[in-house]
From TrEMBL:
Entry protein name: Lytic murein transglycosylase
Signal peptide per UniProt: 1-29
Entries under SUPFAM superfamilies matching the protein: Lysozyme-like
Single GO BP term: peptidoglycan catabolic process
Domain Transglycosylase SLT stretches: 35-343
PANTHER family per the UniProt record, alphabetical: LYTIC MUREIN TRANSGLYCOSYLASE, MEMBRANE-BOUND LYTIC MUREIN TRANSGLYCOSYLASE B
Keyword Lipid metabolism: no
Organism superkingdom: Bacteria
Keywords: Signal
Record-level Gene Ontology MF annotations: peptidoglycan lytic transglycosylase activity
Length: 347
């Protein structure tokens, strides 16, 4: 029987699709098989870390490879240090909007009883803690729905950052050993969890009880989430009584290029290279800098200058405490938004 070229091509297409589907399912099976083999070594590390047998026996048999987590991880931006930096003003408009300010003020007022005590203990302003909480999880409303043990085991198996994610997986098992339920240990695909969006190992170091019940539950207690944020900032070097920064106007005649920072930061260099050299508030005032709100911090406080939208737009004098916020998330847009939202929340 003679087969037409059109029919022949259709037959080949069907056969090819079936073959590809078979190959795809085989690849998936091989990945799952490899993952299960990897879990043998991961279980041995859990035993060596002192994880209890009930936790090991309840978690490991349930673990399967999460292809979605791998997809999200591989889809991350490449982190190129080249290319133009976008303007900050549009980002600010999206992240310090009326709704987020209103929700922040409501949370601020609702939790003042707990927040005031946390501020007295840590020196971190209540509004800064609330602002970070708002930026991280929309004040606790959006904390992530990925199962931490499965996500972290998957990322460890993938291997690009195996040491990091093995450590975070084992830290998650320790949380289960501490009595936190598997169901509560949800978070982002990359393992950030709870109100502060801590990695599990960060929680083990810096989780703090804020409601006085003797347990730091950043998943179910707003006060604990906020106290843990405050504790993180203290650990990163927060200085009580120092503002994060102030918005300012820069005179047109000031040679900002002459004030450039000549040092290179070992961490997030592209973030820090946009900051000027350090000068005291008094020195900035003498250069003709004018605060937009008519307020000058103490003369001796050191600050750097950042013009996120270029000359002629709002600029910022940024203190040591701004650098502490960068330790939470090393992005100028993030840290500026935390400071500016905090200012709005506290009004």
């Amino acid at each position: 029987m003679r087969v037409s070229g059109k029919v022949f091509r259709r037959i080949i297409a069907v056969i090819g699709a079936a073959a590809m589907a078979s190959l795809g399912s085989t690849a998936m099976a091989q990945d799952e098989s490899g993952f299960q083999n990897y879990l043998v070594s991961l279980k041995a590390k859990a035993v060596a870390e002192g994880i209890t047998q009930p936790t090991i026996q309840s978690v490991f048999p349930t673990l399967t490879l999460n292809e979605r987590v791998i997809e999200l991880d591989r889809g991350q931006p490449g982190g190129s240090s080249s290319g133009p930096i976008p303007a900050y003003a549009p980002y600010y408009a999206r992240h310090v909007d009326d709704a987020r300010i209103a929700l922040g003020r409501a949370a601020y007022q609702r939790l003042r009883g707990k927040l005031a005590g946390i501020e007295r203990e840590t020196g971190v302003p209540e509004s800064i803690m609330v602002s970070i909480w708002g930026n991280e999880t929309a004040y606790g409303a959006v904390t992530g729905g990925f199962d931490l043990p499965r996500s972290l085991a998957t990322l460890a198996y993938e291997g690009r950052r195996r040491d990091l994610f093995e450590r975070e997986f084992l830290a998650t098992l320790k949380l289960i050993d501490m009595g936190f339920s598997r169901a509560s240990l949800q978070g982002s695909w990359a393992g950030a969890t709870g109100g502060p969006q801590f990695l599990p190992s960060v929680y083990l170091r810096l989780g703090k009880d804020g409601d006085g019940d003797g347990r730091a539950d950043i998943w179910n207690s707003d006060a604990d989430a906020l106290a843990s944020i405050g504790n993180y900032l203290v650990n990163a070097g927060w200085r009580p009584g120092v503002p994060w920064g102030i918005p300012v106007d820069v005179p047109a005649g000031l040679n900002v290029g002459r004030l450039a920072n000549k040092t290179v930061s070992p961490r997030c260099p592209r973030v820090h290279e946009r900051h000027s050299a350090w000068h005291t508030m008094k020195e900035w005032r003498q250069m003709g800098i004018v605060p937009e709100r008519g307020y000058w911090p103490d003369d001796h406080i050191l600050a750097t200058l950042l013009e996120p939208d270029g000359p002629g737009k709002t600029a910022y004098l940024l203190t040591h405490n701004y650098r502490v916020i960068l330790d939470y998330n090393c992005s100028n847009f993030y840290a500026l938004t935390v400071g500016l939202l905090a200012d709005q929340v506290a009004q």
